[in-house]
Amino acid sequence: MINIPQKALADLEFDTILEYVENHCVSSLGKERIRNLKPFSEKSVLFQQLEMVNEYSSSIESDNKIPSHFFDDLSKEMKLLSIENSFLEPKSFLKICNCFDTTISLILFFRKFKLYFKELYKDSDKIYICKTVPNIILSKITKFGEVSDKSSLALKVIRREISEIRSKIGGSFQRDLIRYSASGFLDEIKESVLDNQRVLAVSAMYRRKVKGSVMGTSKTGSIVFMVPESTQQFNRELEKSIADERQEIMRILKELTNELREYLPEIKLYQNYLTHIDTIGARAKFSKTIKGILPRIDNNKNIYLKDAYHPLLLLKDKAKIEDIVPQTLELNEKQQIIVISGPNAGGKSITLKTIGLLQVMLQSGILIPVHPKSVSSIFDTILTDIGDNQSIENQLSTYSYRLKNMRYFLRKCNENSMFLIDEFGTGSDPELGGALAEVFLEEFHAKKSFGIITTHYSNLKVLAEELPNVSNANMMFDERTLEPMYKLFVGQAGSSFTFEVAQKNGIPFSLINRAKKKVEGEKIRLDKTISKLQIERSKLQRSSDSLDRERDKTQETTELLTEKQAKVQKKLESFQELYDSNQKILTIGRQVNDMANTFFQNNSKKQLMANFFKWISIEKVKYLKKNPPIDKTKKQKKEDNKKAVVKKQELVKIEKEILKEVVEIRAVKKEKESIEARIKASYKYKIGDTVRLIDSKTSGTIDKIDKNKVSVNFGMFMTTVSLLEIELVRKAKK
Predict the structure, then answer these.
(1) 310: which residues sit within 8 A by CB, 6+ positions away?
(2) Is residue 508 domain-resident?
């Protein structure tokens, strides 16, 4: 059972991470659930969550992008459904319908791409598709959020009556408008709209000339707005019909609400699923912003975080991302505890928080910004003691508070826990506090807990060297500029560079020397030795980093060459098969040609058939020796046929490639021959040149040249030929 205290989450600023994750949610319910997100208590649930977040993350930039899953909060609607005689508004029904449609589309999507989204598919497959609820709603509510005319016959009749009455009102008003306008009783604007109904704009002096009721006047009192008497009767009829419509709509909504009450569990289930997918999506989208990946999870206790970044630094300094130094760190049975030392403001606390925060994020189902070759494990608890932590409420000093924490650590630490302690042992007398810190460190080591501590105490650095499976580490420091490099190096304790940093910050040299005299000589020598060792280690580290880069390049080149060699080998094997196949076809062709020639000479069909069947029998025996018959099922035969077709296609492809290469080689050869021919044609032969006749292998020497004729001495004989009939073998020696 995994249980990580709230204090650890607060120390590591996990709530700040959740605020960033929350911004990627598409619903208020998703945001609320992310705000309450804690590390998962069950490993099986955690592994499933990590896989789902990883699958969602991979879909963001792929062609199979997961559909939008926005939905409205249905808490109010579900509460009303649980109350008898209540009813929902049309818009509420549309929200429920949208919830079901979105969920069903996701289920169908994951079902279609279940090979790509295995865990998301398994998760969605638990929910059955219920199309009844959307069908019930859409049978009575339109997509515009109104009750449909088809909901009941009474509503359809009432709405038809309302339409007819409004038509009558419009006709009656228009007649009165024309009549009173012609009489000159109306103002220039003629009409207006008050309380959603048309009114006549009557001049105040003629108000008694127009029959009707007054609805209001203009600010100046010069215009009186009146409803004509002829339309008042129709307005009363309209109000009655609208009241009837409202009553019928309420009846339909109550009926529809009662019908949906029995589906309340499904509504809760669908909304809960969409909220769950929203949290998965938010974590995946956040992981993309920090370039998070899912490292390999090792069942054994083994942590190897390569190029690990603090996510909050990545989010705050996106513009300066190149300046952020990643850390590489390993914890395992051989390196159970790491003691980090080094100068103040060198990055010790940030390194500590980075490891802790990444572990908490991973155990909360959030991908982390590390190298793909990184490995992690799952811890039952993570304990932290970071910061001052003075408790005014409980009247505890820093040291008292820390002692209380240590008591809790000693009770909870075991082989499945990780502890992170910043400035271990501080808050009391250095010698006494340091001695107690040694004992605590020995206890943590005996309990086989994994942990990282930061300290300035020399005795803890010495103890780290003496205890098995405990390593010293330091935050590297540039000895030339006296600036921290923020790079962790495991294997050696670090100097605090107290006097060097003081000198760089402008403290007078005389004061620094006075301070040095007050410190024991042995302590200064020890610090100087550590400083020198750290400087040498920095140089070695730079060389090591350079060698690692070269090794990685060499490895990449080797892998590339191996891949190319495998491709060439495959191509050669295919070419050999093609060559053997062509040779076999040529042999068959020659045998058939021999039989045909024999037939042409003696014209004996009988002998031709006899020779043919004899040859076929011999070939069959050869074939059966190499390929003894095996009884195959229809399925096996079908698979063999498929393989044969694929093989044939590959051979055809390779044959095309080879022919293409042959054509290219021939073209190059032809071009080369053409160049050589031009060179030869432009060459002026001289007496003594060694030449030969074209298409001949015998060479001779030119003895005489007469215009286009040359006399060539071949030793045993001499001949006279044209210049076009010879080619140069070797030029005459000067």
Answers:
(1) 324, 350, 353, 354, 357
(2) no
Mean pLDDT of the chain: 83
Do 242 and 267 lie in one domain? The reply is no
96: nearest Cα among 60, 133, 124, 130: 133
What angle, 0 to 180 degrees and rounded to 10, lies between the N-to-C axes of helices 264-289 and 14-22? 110
Any domain includes 319: yes
Asked, for residue 511, whether it belongs to a domain, the answer is no
* Type of residue found at 126: K
Element of type H or E holding 454: strand 450-454
Q: What is the CATH number of the domain that holds 186?
A: 1.10.1420
Q: Is the pLDDT of residue 713 over 90?
A: no
Q: How many domains does the chain have?
A: 5
Higher pLDDT, 640 or 153: 153
Residue 252 burial by Cβ neighbours in a 10 Å radius (0-12, 13-18, 19+): buried
515-568 per-position pLDDT tens digit:
766 665 545 555 555 666 666 666 676 677 777 778 878 888 888 888 888 877
Confidence class of residue 124 from pLDDT cuts 50, 70 and 90? very high
Alpha-carbon distance 158 to 242, whole Å? 8
Q: Is the sign of the CA dihedral 264, 265, 269, 270 positive or negative? A: negative
N-terminal to C-terminal alpha carbon distance within the chain? 98
Q: Is 417 contained in some domain?
A: yes
Residues 459 and 563 in one domain: no
**Euclidean distance between CA atoms 322 and 197, whole angstroms:** 68
Nearest to 4 by CA among 455, 426, 380: 380
CB 71 within 8 A of CB 271: yes
- By residue range, what is the domain housing residue 599? 555-650
391 secondary structure, DSSP code: B
Distance from chain centroid for Cα 551: 29
Higher pLDDT, 207 or 516: 207
Q: Domain check: are 483 and 608 in the same one? A: no
Instruction: Read off the tokens for 551.
Output: 């090794």
Name residues whose C-beta falls within 8 Å of residue 622's C-beta, 6 or more positions apart in sequence: none
DSSP string, 627-641: S------HHHHHHHH
Grouping H, G, I as helix, E, B as strand and the rest as coil, residue 218 is coil
Residue 437 and residue 367 share a domain: yes
185 shares a domain with 122: no
Q: 158 with 231, same domain?
A: yes
Same domain for 635 and 716?
no
Strand, coil or helix: what is 297?
strand
Long-range contacts of 116-123 (CB under 8 A, 24+ apart): 116/55, 116/58, 116/59, 116/64, 117/55, 117/59, 117/66, 118/51, 118/55, 119/48, 119/51, 119/52, 119/55, 120/52, 120/55, 120/56, 120/66, 120/280, 122/48, 123/48, 123/52, 123/276
Confidence tier at 96 by pLDDT (50, 70, 90): very high
Kindly report the pTM of this predicted structure. Answer: 0.66
Instruction: Identify the DSSP state of 2.
Output: -
**661 vs 268: CA distance, rounded Å:** 66
391 and 481 together in one domain: yes
